[in-house]
Design goal:
It is built from nine helices and no strands. By secondary structure, it is an all-alpha fold. Among the domains are: 124 residues; 41 residues, no CATH class. The N and C termini lie far apart (101 Å).
Amino acid sequence: MSDIASRAEEAADIALGSAEIAQKAASKVLDALPVPDPRSDPNFQRLAGLEQSMLARITPWGRNRWPDVVRFDERIGEFDLRQEDVRAKLTDLHNRQDRADADYAAALAEWMAAGQVVESKPVSEVPELEAAIIEAEGELAALDNLRERVIEEKLAYVRKHRGRLVRDAERATGEARERVLRAVDEYEKAREELVGLRQTAVWANCFPSETLASHPPHAALVGGRNREAEQHLPGLKRELPVYALLALLRADANYFSTVSTIEQAAVMQGTSVEALKGGAMWTDSEEGQAWQKREKERLIEMYERVWQRKPPEFG
């Protein structure tokens, strides 16, 4: 190997070693730097604000009972519609801006080709479009600001009047539950009347035939005809007694007068999901045994409401 090649190889080895040393030093510096809190990132804060804004837009699933809350939502909706118009305007302005340079160059070329008449020299739209875009973006931001103010007003209103709103909604829920139960009772009576009147009509047609000694079964839905019942209740393999259906409808009314997700229940009761699930309790602790007892009683009560008897293991 020539002296030049040897020296070049030696220089390459030195450079490679220096690079490795520099990389290790840089790694140490990076490791020593404090890890930034992601919550301080503007984008994180923006996303958190958007999440809060979206949560504040949630409205009651059923009919909203409170005119004041409705008005908040209407004002928020008005800002949304105005923003849609501004966004459409911005889209048009950006599209025109994208074409502005090419349009100006084409117009300028035509002007030059026509002899460069001073009075008719074209003017670029770019400055005007840029100013219009800045103005529209400002309007969009202003509408954001105004909507957030309304959202804050809505949040403050609900927090201030939560007790009254809850009492009103729970009272209305109880009234609706009673209406459902009355409707089930009315159905039960009307069905009994229907069965009796049909038997009367058959008697009027057949008297004094010996066929009147018996009647079609009526204790089960559609007379116990499983094929017809299964069309509406897929998976039903046995006849469904009418009393069980009525009990089930009543249980349904009771269930939906108190139901919530477990996360919602935790918020309403001021506790944790784990505590409601019982996962944080030892099964042999006093608290754990009390929870198991309540859960067993709830399941037995539900069974009795549907089937009008205790479960076999408690019969």
